[in-house]
Write a structure and sequence with these properties.
- With 476 residues, the protein is mainly α.
- The chain is 76% helix and 0% strand.
- It has 19 helices and no strands.
- The protein has helices spanning 7-19, 44-63, 72-79, 83-87, 91-111, 113-132, 137-151, 153-165, 171-199, 202-223, 239-243, 253-268, 271-298, 307-312, 314-338, 353-371, 376-404, 409-438, 440-475.
- It is globular.
- It starts with 6 loop residues before the first helix and ends with a helix.
- GO terms for molecular function: transmembrane transporter activity.
- It is found in: Membrane.
- Keywords: Membrane, Transmembrane, Transmembrane helix.
């Protein structure tokens, strides 16, 4: 049996991997060897089935967290609370998604990807079941909060699995596909929940969600494999043992957990991740605000939508997310082909400029349409433009961050997820009162201005920082 790696070995490998920036890597094939244990050498069938399983669980991460956003009126009547109070049942779960991802990082690095992907999914399934059987708002909210804490793992584990299974040239495309699944989820989930709830009741809708979680869990058991691989750092555990983290890595557990706890804190405050993280926080705040509050407006004059109509409006969000995916897909290919001979990692960040303009225009369209009581088509178009900006921005920033820190894919993913969910959590508490105080038109106009200014002030310094870093490297 091989001798387990020490922490000193881990630090040396981490430093070496970080030093090998994406811009100097071989884009044709950066797999380390033809070792069959290397996930990059697996068959296309195994990779595809594993990736589909990852997408189903990622789709549920946010999609299941806001599943009840189209059912809050019925739940408020059931529990005899206000609609506004009923809507806050999701807020703590959204916040805990960020913390859950951070907590998962050391465990993923110490025990491997598969067990930390599987068992939180099992726990989340039972949390959804508990919410389904709840008889009061407090119990329901407790289970929903725990659902957010454990159910966020697929959003974190996706980047390291993509990093493990695919070559660097394939990363942007696979990130684009995977990222779109959990960004479409917040709109597709409530639509399906509303359709089911309209024909039955909210408990049946959550019962269906429990069954979907069961199906996703079964797919992980059947098609999930441990993807952690570093030459000499990976054992060959049995299939059963890999589910429980035995032999997935040869790293010492206690020191690895301590090391990665410290690394998470260090990377949160690394300048590029800090700046791009703040950009994500701002660009996710307002779209999530629309997602969690739009039903209140649609059921009120002048729209007076019923449950089916309000649920169908969610497909405007889905269309916007898919358009954002299309933009990110073509932009990533175009920018690399254009600068293939002089590639610089930060060029990925140019993918935020058009999306942010789209988001600003969408916020104005959405806010003014609602402010003046115009046709619902204006709401749909505004929402589409907002979601184009949201999805395309996270794709650009995620691709940059993974290329910048290829050896810290898990850590990077968790940090970006934390920034995203913090923005989504906060908006539910201050936006309703803000709208009452200042009116829809002014509020969404200010939001559009904040998005533009914040992204310019966070992304531009990253370009300047990267330029200064290269100049210093050349002088040295």
């Amino acid at each position: 049996m091989e001798k387990p790696f020490t922490l000193e070995s881990m630090r040396e490998m981490e430093n070496a991997t970080s030093a090998q920036s994406f811009e100097t890597r071989d884009f044709k094939d950066d797999s380390e060897s033809k070792d069959p244990l290397n996930p990059r050498n697996w068959s296309s069938t195994r990779k595809t089935l594993l990736f589909i399983s990852l997408m189903t669980s990622s789709l549920l991460a946010d999609g299941a967290m806001v599943w009840g956003s189209t059912l809050i009126t019925e739940q408020a009547m059931d529990w005899n609370v206000s609609i506004t109070h009923s809507a806050t049942s999701m807020n703590y779960g959204i916040l805990l998604q960020g913390f859950g991802g951070i907590f998962a990082v050391p465990l993923i690095e110490a025990y491997g990807r598969l067990p930390i992907w599987l068992w939180p999914q099992v726990i989340t399934m039972f949390m959804v079941l508990g919410a389904t059987l709840s008889n009061d708002w407090s119990t329901f909210t407790t289970f929903r909060s725990l659902q957010g804490l454990f159910g966020t793992v697929p959003q974190v584990i996706g980047l390291p699995i993509i990093h493990d299974m695919y070559t660097s040239a394939e990363w942007p495309r696979m990130i684009n596909i995977w990222g779109t699944t959990f960004l479409v989820g917040p709109f597709l989930g409530p639509a399906i929940a509303g359709y089911i709830g309209a024909g039955t009741d909210w408990r049946t809708s959550f019962g269906v969600l429990t069954a979907i979680y069961g199906l996703s869990t079964a797919m992980i058991i059947l098609f999930g494999y441990e993807t952690y691989y570093v030459q000499g750092q990976r054992g060959s555990p049995s299939r059963l043992a890999s589910y429980f983290g035995f032999g997935n890595t040869l790293l010492p557990k206690a020191s690895t957990l301590t090391y990665w706890c410290r690394m998470v804190v260090v990377y949160i405050f690394k300048f590029p991740l800090l700046m791009t993280g703040i950009a994500i926080l701002v660009t996710f705040t307002w779209p999530i605000g629309i997602t969690t509050t739009i039903d209140t407006f649609l059921h009120s004059p002048p729209y007076l939508f019923d449950t089916i109509e309000a649920s169908s409006m969610r497909f405007a969000g889905v269309i916007g997310a898919l358009c954002g995916w299309a933009f990110g897909h073509f932009f990533n290919g175009w920018i690399f082909n254009r600068h293939n001979n002089t590639w610089r990692t930060e060029l990925r960040l140019h993918g935020v400029w058009f999306p942010i303009a789209s988001m600003a225009c969408g916020l104005l369209t959405y806010g003014l349409t609602m402010n003046f009581g115009k046709h619902w088509i204006g709401l749909a178009l505004g929402w589409i433009m907002v979601n184009i900006g949201m999805v395309a921005t996270i794709v650009a920033i995620s691709a940059y961050a993974l290329e910048k820190y290829p050896g810290q894919a898990t850590c990077v993913s968790a940090i970006l997820n934390m920034w995203r969910t913090c923005g989504g959590f906060a908006v539910g508490y201050f936006q309703p009162a803000w709208i009452v105080r200042n009116g829809l038109g002014l509020v969404f106009g200010i939001q559009a201005a904040i998005v533009c200014v914040a992204v310019i002030l966070t992304i531009t310094p990253v370009f300047l920082w990267e330029r200064k870093r290269r100049s210093q490297a050349q002088e040295a």
